[in-house]
Amino acid sequence: KSLRKDGITGRVVMKLHVHRDGTVRGAKILSVKTSATTEDDKKKAKVAFLKAIKKVVPGWKFKPAD
After folding, report:
1. Less packed terminus of the chain by CB within 10 Å, N or C?
2. What angle do CA 56, 65, 60 make, to 5 degrees?
3. How far apart are CA 21 and CA 30, in angstroms?
4. Contacts of 53 (CB under 8 A, 6+ apart)
């Protein structure tokens, strides 16, 4: 929320290992890009995005292929 309030946006590219049952068993962050301009804001944004990823990715579930 604080990043959004400061107008900072971003994008995270990940490589996921999805198990046969559709659960995510592993995630590797390939890149993090933000609109932050200062070094402090860049650090703050990167930490916030990584924290969010760790929180949400384990709950993701994909539809298994037929």
Report:
1. C
2. 5
3. 24
4. 12, 14, 27, 29
Contact by Cβ (8 Å): 36, 62: no
44: burial class by Cβ within 10 Å (0-12, 13-18, 19+)?
middle
Q: Is 36 helix (H, G, I), strand (E, B) or coil?
A: coil
Spell out the residues 6+ positions from residue 14 whose beta carbon is closer than 8 angstroms to its own.
27, 28, 29, 30, 53, 57
Q: What is the pLDDT of residues 6-60, one digit of tens each?
A: 899 999 999 999 998 899 998 999 999 999 999 999 999 999 988 988 899 999 9
Closest by Cα among 61, 52, 49 to 16? 61
